[in-house]
Write a structure and sequence with these properties.
The protein is α/β, with parallel strands linked by helices. It contains 14 helices and 15 strands. It is globular, with a radius of gyration of 22 Å. Bound molecules: pyridoxal-5'-phosphate (PLP).
């Protein structure tokens, strides 16, 4: 279909959108009495209107029962995390026994690397994407150092080629092949936070496994954004946060995945806590750690119920929408945004055109059949942060990364085609 740069056309797309009613399930921040054009669902997802009542339920049970709420609350706190598991597992394509919601993302990366980064004298290196999210870089550096290696020596980064922004799929596979005898771990993101590039997790995992290399993914920008199949892909472990595409509130509880094949390997080293020990004997307060055979073994502490309640509210909205509809709308939004940006470019001189840096499907960066996700990063050539500031003043909320990259994430649950049209209008007026 040929897109049109008109309000009527954008509204027509909204009218045909099967997920249209979901926007009303969220609080959209306001600017001068109008809905903001919110494009930062990849940093902090918006609040579902049901979140308050889910949290209120737990506050009421706490008021009413005190400590007895662990067993007497409507959703007993002792096992609260279990009511999240099935839906969380569906989001990452894992079996329920492979998934647990716990802690924070970086904490989970560390806990999982304690078990799955097991360097030997010959094999101690970690393969990562260049310019990974800083927290991930610090985590892998400090893990290498913890085992007595220098980060410079132990960490191998795959970089984009000269003059390119995204990493070619073949270059990742070539790096695995080149370093196959030295690598202990491949630790990549599922979707790069900056470029929005989706990595071919299935192929990376398969190729690394051929050489006995363990594979883990940080799914911060992938969970709730693209379809994942961690179990079938054979990924060893993964972690993600719930406050980006999963709309569960600032700093909310994170997720962890451990593949079934590791569940009965009780020789894995682990940093243990009482919540990872068998539920039947946990309150006997004994001396011996009795590991749970599943992802729950990696739990340390009793659960943060209030943030889990927010996560449950968000998961229920997600489940109601269904992933297939979300991914279809995500592709449609991206296609329209791409068009809107190209329309703006028609009005700009050559040295001031906006250049998309997020790679497209069926390219050297993203193989055919892998859905690109909903982030769209563009380089604002010849412009500075004043452009971003002016957008914010007009009620548009993108994300700005120095020196001149604008990240836009139209989220299928609550962004509309009209949002994209309005963004285009506002941007053109500013220029
Ligand atoms: C958002 C994000 C983080 C943030 O880590 P927290 O532990 O949740 O503060 C880490 N890694 C990646 C790749 C991210 O996108």
């Amino acid at each position: 279909m040929e897109h049109q740069n008109t309000l009527a056309y954008a509204q027509e797309l909204d009218n045909k959108d099967e997920l249209r009613s979901f926007r009303d399930k969220f609080h959209i921040p306001q600017h001068n009495g109008k809905d903001m054009v919110y494009f930062t669902g990849n940093s902090l997802g918006l609040q579902p209107k049901t979140t308050e009542s889910y949290i209120q339920q737990e506050l009421n049970d706490w008021k009413k029962h005190g400590v007895e709420g662990h067993f007497l609350a409507k959703n007993p706190w002792f096992s609260y995390h279990e009511i999240l598991t099935e839906q969380a597992a569906a989001i990452v394509g894992g079996l329920p026994s492979e998934v647990v919601m716990m802690n924070q993302l970086t904490v989970n990366l560390h806990l999982l690397m304690v078990s799955f980064y097991r360097p030997t004298k010959q094999r101690y290196k970690i393969l990562c994407e260049a310019k990974a999210f800083p927290s991930d870089q610090y985590a892998v550096q400090s893990q290498a150092q913890f085992h007595g290696h220098s980060a410079d020596d132990a960490i191998v980064e795959v970089e984009p080629r000269e003059g390119e922004y995204a990493i070619r799929s073949e270059d990742i596979l070539a790096a695995i092949e080149k370093h196959k005898d030295e690598l202990a771990l491949v630790m990549f993101s599922g979707v790069n936070y900056f470029t929005g590039q989706v990595f071919d997790m299935k192929t990376i995992t398969r190729e690394a496994h051929k050489h006995g290399i363990v594979v883990g993914f940080d799914l911060a920008h992938a969970a709730g954004n693209i379809k994942l199949n961690l179990h079938d892909w054979g990924v060893d472990f993964a972690a993600w946060c719930s406050y980006k595409y999963l709309n569960s509130g600032p700093g909310s509880v994170a997720g962890a995945f451990v593949h079934e094949r590791h569940h009965h390997n009780f020789d894995l080293p682990i940093f243990a806590g009482w919540w990872g020990s068998d539920k039947k004997t946990r309150f006997l307060m004994g001396k011996t750690f009795d590991p749970i055979a599943g992802a729950e073994r990696w739990q340390l502490s009793n659960a943060p119920i209030l943030s889990m309640a927010a996560h449950k509210a968000a998961l229920d909205v997600f489940t109601e929408a269904g992933f297939d509809k979300l991914t279809a709308k995500s592709e449609a939004l991206l296609s329209y945004l791409d068009f809107i940006v190209s329309e703006i470019n028609l009005t700009q001189p050559n040295d001031k055109k906006f250049e998309p840096l997020t790679p497209k499907e069926d390219s050297v960066y993203i193989p055919k059949g892998i859905q690109p996700g909903c982030q769209f990063s563009i380089i604002a050539h010849g412009r500075g942060k004043e452009l971003f500031n002016a957008l914010v003043e007009q009620g548009v909320v993108p994300d700005w990364r120095e020196p001149n990259v604008i990240r836009l994430a139209p989220v299928p649950l609550y962004n509309s085609f009209e949002d994209l049209y309005r963004f285009g209008e506002i941007l053109r007026d500013l220029l």
